[in-house]
């Protein structure tokens, strides 16, 4: 059984892609790194996917889906961060009411950093295939007030990234992915 965390590696044809989507790739990598550094071993596999060709229409995600859809019942949740890594506020979530109740409970663990909201609908080109087939999905929600200042522009460089805000995003990704991977049962569908 798999809990998938992800971001995409490719960027638009200008800028460096630090925000879109280097930040999402980084926090996904960091989540697994933190779990390993803490010596935690969840019941399910945590899988990092760094998508390719998202900007060209999700070609890498479609290929991954085609290769793994026969095992769809083993995918517990698919998580994608692709809306920047600014100050987080919570998760977008797609899943049934019972799964949403569980995710709401998990998010209470993040009260100390004030990131507890669960919004309707996860977003993500790279996880859409899975969610359409009923796999619960989550996407990071953060402060988008500056996102379109840099999105697909020459301004999308490392100077956009705030290490403190990225650490908060990584904390959200770490807690949510680990708790779901370590629950007794998979999220209800």
UniProtKB/TrEMBL annotation:
Cellular component, GO annotation: endoplasmic reticulum; extracellular space; Golgi apparatus; lysosome
GO annotation, biological process: peptide catabolic process; proteolysis; thyroid hormone generation
Single GO term (MF): metal ion binding
Compartmental location: Endoplasmic reticulum; Golgi apparatus; Lysosome; Secreted
Pfam families associated with the record: Peptidase_M28
Record keywords, A-Z: Carboxypeptidase, Endoplasmic reticulum, Glycoprotein, Golgi apparatus, Hydrolase, Lysosome, Metal-binding, Metalloprotease, Protease, Secreted, Signal, Zinc, Zymogen
Keyword Zinc: yes
Major localization listed first in the record, in broad terms: endoplasmic reticulum
UniProt domain Peptidase M28: residue ranges: 2-173
Similarity-based family: Belongs to the peptidase M28 family.
Description of how the protein assembles with itself and partners: Homodimer. The monomeric form is inactive while the homodimer is active.
Protein name: Carboxypeptidase Q
Organism the protein comes from: Eudyptes sclateri
Lineage of producing organism: Eukaryota, Metazoa, Chordata, Craniata, Vertebrata
